[in-house]
């Protein structure tokens, strides 16, 4: 087997880039070192890109042919047109990327991440197609025949890339509200999905003995289809898992292409990103007490309403006003704020921080409790609170703060529902049974901001907290309600 | 490099990834996704190779344009991913000292 001629310095540079990426993730272990981490990532990427640009200068030969490998006798000269095109391509991408990054609202982060995932997926597909059409340039073929091993890597790369692309597009449309969050369930979807997956794997195997174009293109098309079919039946509440899972796929796609190109930077990065997404998916599944398989199988959030919400009698509940809430908050010694997706939807984080500041000025201890699946992606609430200048020392994870509710005067729930539902502990028939929840009910008083008494969260389960003696419901838009409380605190 | 060497790097990197990612604080999970997004666009290396190598055989020209398009997509991700991560990380502040105003 002919090996790719590699410049040892280039290999070393790619290895350094890979190490930079490891350090970039390592930096995220604490907010204090995180910015340094991001800079390491930028350094690593610069090394990888510059190395590639230097080692793959496009040459033009005097007879009009271009050839990347220095395999011919005629003196080549640099193909400046292609160089300009490449630099222009980078420039266009940079302009779009930076503008988007500056303009995006923090509440729209989940959509942006899904959109970015789709780009990685599509880029992987394009690179795999380019490698299939022009294998000589990548040094993976001899006399037009692609090495069998490279065919497997290429087939897997294009398949994972295509699944990442179409899956992320659907996730984006769902998160962005262009498509309903409710799961769309096709009859016999499990059979169809398994059939398509088996066909893809079979074709990747067949690709090693027959490198015909139809095999490659069929793999590509089927993979686009399966990405779509896999994500369509998954409901809005499961989006944190889906986004993490697609994050993982984008990593595996990069790794597969790294195998094809024998590039260490791509392999290391692919493995890092792949494990990162997989771990996040695991954390999200655990936080919902659901198995990964059941999330993938889809359907949660649509058909479950009947299971848990057996028609209950009208139960009495108390309604409070902003003034009542302000009074209770002022008198408290400790207040724990529990934000959820509703806070993101109404952009209430800034008003909430203002409320926190006012309470602190009154001598109240204010803490924030974050459930791992609050919001639409891992860490979504933390970013929004950080955006509103809430110091991260005041923000606590579920297991660190849950025992404190019993010694808390006011639990202030804003736009969160399922993550506070005690049915997860007591009601075995509930679809969220077994999910770890925040024990807001143990606080002396619960203030629960909710749009109306009608909707009952994504899981479609009624929440006993609403009807407790120590609960006061604050009905209305989260942001307006908090602003009114802030006014009353003066 | 032979397949086993590459596979070794891959397997070791998976383990490194496993331990490094578990050490990431949950508060930074959103920036983690944004930055992993940016670095997975290292796939731009493949795109650059394709874009720089036109003209070999009949697939060369098509391959070049696919490569250029992939360079654009990956660049969006690289610049956008790092920029948005930097923007998010800049927001994570320590508790302001008593009396200080934001």
Automatic annotation (TrEMBL), chain A:
Residues 11-487 form the NADP transhydrogenase beta-like domain. SUPFAM superfamilies: DHS-like NAD/FAD-binding domain. The chain crosses the membrane at residues 6-28, 40-61, 81-100, 112-134, 154-175, 191-209, 215-234, 241-259, 265-285. Its EC number is 7.1.1.1. It is found in: Cell inner membrane. It comes from the Bacteria. This is NAD(P) transhydrogenase subunit beta.
From TrEMBL, chain B:
InterPro entries: NADP_transhyd_a_C. Keywords: Cell inner membrane, Cell membrane, Membrane, NAD, NADP, Translocase, Transmembrane, Transmembrane helix. It is a multi-pass membrane protein. It catalyses: NAD(+) + NADPH + H(+)(in) = NADH + NADP(+) + H(+)(out). Residues 7-94 form the NAD(P) transhydrogenase alpha subunit C-terminal domain. Its EC number is 7.1.1.1. It is an enzyme of class 7 (translocase). The transhydrogenation between NADH and NADP is coupled to respiration and ATP hydrolysis and functions as a proton pump across the membrane. This is proton-translocating NAD(P)(+) transhydrogenase. It comes from Sphingomonas echinoides. The lineage of its organism: Bacteria, Pseudomonadati, Pseudomonadota, Alphaproteobacteria, Sphingomonadales.
